[in-house]
Amino acid sequence: MFRSASLVGVVATVALVAGCSSSGDPAESGSGDAVVASTSVPTTDLSADAGDAAAPSTAVPTTTIAPVEPQVVTVDVRVPAHAIDASVSVDAEGGGDPFDDDFATCSAYRSVAGAYAVGVGGPDADLPWVSIVSAARIDGAGEVAADVRVDLPDGSEIDAAGTMTLDADLASGTFTATAADGAVVEGDFDCAGSERPPVTMAATDEGAIEVVALIDRDGRERVVTAATLDADDADCPADPTSVVVRVDGDATLGAISMFEIDQTEGAAVMRLRVGATIYEFDDVVLDLDDAERVGTFIAADDVAVVGAFSCT
Question: How do residues 70-127 score in pLDDT, each as one tens digit?
């Protein structure tokens, strides 16, 4: 069963996506790849006598390739009222199941970011799960409203609302939020190994599709996203009797790498892949807006999923 705060938070995130998106142009990507070649300046030996027939010797320039930094997500979280001061760090490239294995997600690793989500946890971590999800699309660095979730080892959880502040690289930042009992949840996060800032989505971008989904298994939750620009019209048609929405997301582990809702045969069916796991659902409950370009979905099987999508 979904907790009301989580369900409202995740659906509100994408319900706001179409109307409360960034107002500026999409952020430009970084100036280049993370792998940068540094070349030493060639040096020439001029010590030979003027009459010496031998040509001056020239040192061969050397080139060093910077090592590729691993994709590791780290969240430091403090909740003084509950005596929590923990750091959770997971290799985002580890793969596996979002619940049974170490799992990390971060919008910094995507080519396109709408709503910003970062989360990390695992069965042996000090905290099973910590996530920070923006309540609207981001339009670059700075402060944005956000929801924070902290799962505790005893099976309980802390849900808090507040803000996250993104650094200029869109790969790190801080957060502060307040839970219903008044407890302050604060900390910082870092998504190491991102090659360049993701492109952000504007409300007017054509061919843009965004999906945010909350997956719940036995009270444990994972929030995952997918976003794409320049999508084909057939990936989000207005005709509700055919494919409703289809996204081939980033292949990066921790993202929705495939998402599809189809109701060509009457009842809606949904498929999504997260990490190494593919989820399939029959009898999906859809709620589409009048233009059928924005909608919410609820489905349940071994896990329950609630979320929303928008197409522009």
Answer: 889 999 999 999 999 999 999 877 667 888 889 999 999 888 888 999 999 988 899 9
Tokens of 263: 């109701």
Q: Which two tokens stand for residue 226?
A: 């997918």
User: Is 239 or 179 the better-scoring residue by pLDDT?
Assistant: 179
Domain ranges of the chain: 4-15+69-311
Distance, CA of 215 to CA of 15 (rounded, Å): 17
Within 8 A by CB and 6+ apart from 192, the residues are 69, 70, 71, 72, 73, 74, 171
Structure tokens at 176: 């502060």
User: Nearest Cα to 167, choosing from 188, 195, 136?
Assistant: 188
Q: What is the pTM of this model?
A: 0.75
Per-residue confidence (pLDDT) for residue 288, from 0 to 100: 82
Q: Residue 35's Cα: distance from chain center in Å?
A: 22
Which is it for strands 84-91 and 72-79: parallel, antiparallel or unpaired? antiparallel
3-class SS string, the chain: CCCHHHHHHHHHHHHCCCCCCECCCCCCCCCCCCCCEEECCCCECCCCCCCCCCCCCECCCCEEECCCCCCEEEEEEEEHHHCEEEEEEEECCCCCCCCCCCEEEEHHHCCEECEEEEEEECCCCCCCEEEEEEEEECCCCEEEEEEEEEECCCCCEEEEEEEEEECCCCCEEEEEEEECCCCEEEEEEEEECCCCCCEECECCCCCCEEEEEEEEECCEEEEEEEEECCCCHHHCCCCCCCEEEEECCCCCCCCEEEEEEECCCCCEEEEEEECCEEEEEEEEEEEECCCCCEEEEEEECCCEEEEEEEEC
The predicted-structure confidence for 136-184, as pLDDT tens digits, reads as follows 889 899 999 999 999 999 989 999 999 999 999 999 999 999 999 999 9
- How confident is the prediction for the chain on average, in pLDDT? 78
